[in-house]
Amino acid sequence: MAEANWYVVHTYSGYENKVKANIEKTIENRHLEEEILEVRVPMQDVVEMKNGARKTVQKKMFPGYVLINMIMNDDTWYVVRNTRGVTGFVGPGSKAVPLTEAEMKPLGIKMENVTVDFAEGDTIAVVAGVWKDTIGVVQRIDYSKQVATINVELFGRETPVEIGFAEVRKM
Fold it and tell me: What is the C-alpha to C-alpha distance for residues 163 and 130, in angstroms, rounded to an integer?
């Protein structure tokens, strides 16, 4: 089975919630619950001053955009693309490009937790990123941030560095 990814859909400004409702209704009518998993309009709390009083209100983080977690295939693409209020997927031409994990982190969207085969005290090799080809001993593992802290030698000194789980492998 294909993997579900998050995609960004461009909508008419002000139609985000209507598009979300329309897509959710179509999912229910066409029984696409297994293929289109979640539709989200990202919101944030903003403090406004009105008549000298502080008031917390929710505002759209990205007016004119809706996030959809789905398995991309011809059916799901067609359903989303032909929903009233949708102008298209974000990406070159008509090709939808999924969000990367780094792009999703600031939105508060969590990817599935990665299980690791190393523990504190194990020696690991960094296989990607800035510290590629570096070898270090795991000092700390932070599952909530999905990072391991290792000591690397930098300018003749041991320096702690945080490395993402996806960038390392056990030696």
Answer: 9
User: Do 103 and 151 share a domain, yes or no?
Assistant: no
What single-letter amino acid sits at 82? N
| Confidence (pTM) | 0.60
What does the alpha-carbon distance between residue 103 and residue 98 come to, in Å, rounded to a whole number? 10
Q: Rounded distance, CA 98 to CA 79, Å?
A: 17
Q: Compute φ and ψ for 104, nearest 5 degrees.
A: -85, -25
Domain containing 90 equals: 5-107
Half-sphere CA count of 156, side-chain side, radius 13 A: 0
Count of structural domains within the chain: 2
Residue 55 belongs to a domain with what CATH number?
A: 3.30.70.940
From first to last of its 171 residues, what are the pLDDT tens digits of the chain? 567 889 999 999 899 999 999 999 999 999 888 888 889 988 888 888 888 888 888 888 889 999 999 999 988 999 999 999 999 998 887 688 888 877 877 776 655 555 678 888 888 888 877 788 888 888 888 776 677 888 888 788 888 888 877 777 777
Q: What is the greatest pairwise CA distance in the chain?
A: 64
